[in-house]
Design brief:
alpha/beta
Length: 304
């Protein structure tokens, strides 16, 4: 009975994954190739992402991903990092990492520093655009000074009158509840106050935390959203346009929302960045994360 249950779960996972490939990659590419001219222009080569008309906020911008540890950029933000780095968006993407990942030792922190640069390279970000600060120590019991985080952000972020700046970081729950993640959220809030408040040229996007079931739902929930999106666009586009968000945590904010879906190509890059870039972190449970995490195929970004 136990073995039969395991086999059933395996089959269900495999079927869901191949369905995801069809919905996220094959069907959008076919629609782009054989769809009407207006649909092709509207998609502009983006086979992976559902973006509202306000997506211009993440185009022609300098985008800073503010992370706590080396590997956060892959484990949580890779769909957004890869999407925003696409040439069609004309962005400059940078990583600001606030620790070396030295929870175990300084030696491991040095290793993880090198791994961050390698991961960023795989994701398409040059080493010059990776800023790593070692002022804060990685750890579940480490309390980071949010005002100091704001001061560092002010010193590292270059504001130009001709450029739009977008900050992307964790929400107040920090995805996993990690105190270092949550500190960055409050540090960004302090930073916004420090520069005199939000403006049209400075936007903040936070990654919505998912509950346990949704976090480890792999492609199951994403398939439902992609199915409705593809049906809406291909069959009913002339008279019906349905959008669905089945997240257990519907946005409590009334501002703009961006939903980023990976396709097979983007997921392959994420796997490479984690497995080859952050090799020291590939202990047994990381493979479970790679197989089950929804964050590798979906990001729900909310504008503050």
């Amino acid at each position: 009975m136990f073995i039969r249950s395991i086999l059933y779960v395996q089959r269900t996972y495999v079927v869901s994954f191949f369905l995801w490939i069809a919905l996220s990659t094959v069907i959008p590419q076919l629609l782009t190739k054989y769809g009407c001219e207006s649909d092709i222009k509207a998609r502009n080569g983006r086979t992976s992402t559902v973006l509202p008309s306000s997506a211009s906020m993440v185009q022609n911008s300098t985008i800073y991903f503010i992370i706590a540890h080396p590997d956060d950029e892959v484990m949580f933000f890779s769909p957004s990092v890869i999407e925003f780095s696409k040439v069609s968006h004309n962005n400059k993407v940078k990583l600001l990492c606030f620790s070396k990942g030295d929870a175990d030792s300084d030696i491991m922190g040095n290793i993880r520093t090198r791994e961050l640069y390698e991961s960023a390279r795989i994701l398409g970000i040059s080493q010059d655009n990776v800023l790593l600060m070692d002022e804060f120590k990685d750890g579940m019991n480490e309390n980071w000074d949010t005002k100091r985080i704001a001061e560092i952000l002010k010193s590292k972020i270059n504001h130009k009158a001709s450029e739009r700046t977008v900050l992307v970081t964790f929400d107040q729950d920090g995805v996993s509840g990690h105190p270092n993640h949550k500190a960055l959220y409050y540090g960004v809030l302090h930073y916004i106050k420090l520069i005199g408040g939000r403006s049209h040229d400075t936007r903040v996007l936070i990654l919505q935390s998912l509950n346990f079931l949704e976090k480890y739902s792999s492609t199951f929930l994403t398939n439902v959203e992609l199915f409705v999106e593809n049906i809406s666009r291909s069959i009913f586009s002339s008279f019906l346009n349905v959008k669905i968000n089945i997240s257990f945590f519907n946005s409590k904010y009334s501002t703009q929302v961006l939903k980023i879906y990976s396709d097979l190509n983007m997921l392959s890059v994420s796997y490479a960045a984690m497995a080859y870039g952050h090799y020291s972190q590939m202990v047994w449970f990381r493979y479970g994360w790679l197989l089950l995490s929804r964050y590798l195929t979906y990001n729900h970004l909310i504008e503050l």
